[in-house]
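User: Can you help me understand a structure? I only have the sequence.
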Amino acid sequence: MARCSGDGGSCCRGNAGASFFSGTPQLLPRRPVGSEHPLPTSAGFPDFAVLPSPAVSMRASNVMQPQDYKEAAALERARHAERQLQSRLLNARERLIGGDYNAWAAQVCDRKMQEASEKRKQTMMGAEMKHHDSIASILEEHQRRDRREFEKTLCEFRQNFQKPENRQDFDLSDPLALKKDTPARVSDRDASNPVSGMQKFAGEDQNAPQRKKAQQKMNRNWVLEQQRAWDSALAEHKFAENVFNKSMLEFDQSAVDLQKLELAIKRTVCKAVKDFNQNQVLEEVERKRIDRRKEEEDNMVEITNNLQSRFLSEDLEQKTRPCKAAMAEWKNIKKEQLNEILRVQKQQIEDKQVASLLPSPSPFPSRS
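Assistant: Let's start by predicting it. Here is the structure, written out as tokens:
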């Protein structure tokens, strides 16, 4: 594939013109907007594409000849080739790498189809293997069950019909032969033990195991008795401790109740003292209020008396004493009034002197 350098439009036009026709180039108008493959103007192509066309004679525009159809077909082929060339040139991958995109797409499609077929094959093989495994596990389980049943039946047959004691030589290999045999010495008074048998000697104690067991039993009883005594003492101690704790709790509760009662009494006494003090304060306040009111009334009476007295009113008609006229009861007394008062006083003195010269009457009545 030839690469073009410089002006891509001129190169493409030159190649397209040289590869298809030879002759006089012809200017073709630009394809209308909205066509299938418009000529791109941004890549350097002009508004008119230069395409070669064979030399034809001028004909009427309104008459179509067979050669016109051939020329139109050739023109369409040229346009199609130019579109193919432009699509190859404008594709950066094909222009720079030189790869075949359609071939690559076909390879990718074939690869995907192959992978899908392999995946289906693997899925089918997995399902088949899973089915075979399930069948094998079922068969194996059946085989184990049949073997277990066979072994169980064989064991039952041997236990029922092939017992060891039914054999002829069982007495030679009996493991309980010594236990089944009669002991050589049962007790110290066994009659089957003669003197020549040498089964009894001086100092032997046949009942040592029984005596030891009796001693162990007695010791166990002693230990149990001590344990019971210890448990009883511990229970009594716990009971006494519980009683003591209960009594202490009762004493504490009594003390708390007494303390609460004392506090209640103290609160009552404090409340009573407080009420008494409040009453005393109220009485003192009331007494002071009464005293203040009485003092105010006395002051008002005194002020009223002073305002209505002869000293301030200067009323000569009012006399404190009927026989005397107090000179100090008026202020700004006139000279005539003072002379009148002095005259009256002098007259009174003379009357007293005359009265003193007359004989005084006897206090006792006379006898007739």
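Now, to help you interpret it: The first strand starts at residue 25 and ends at 28. Residues 1-61 have pLDDT under 50 and may be disordered. Let me know which part you'd like to focus on.
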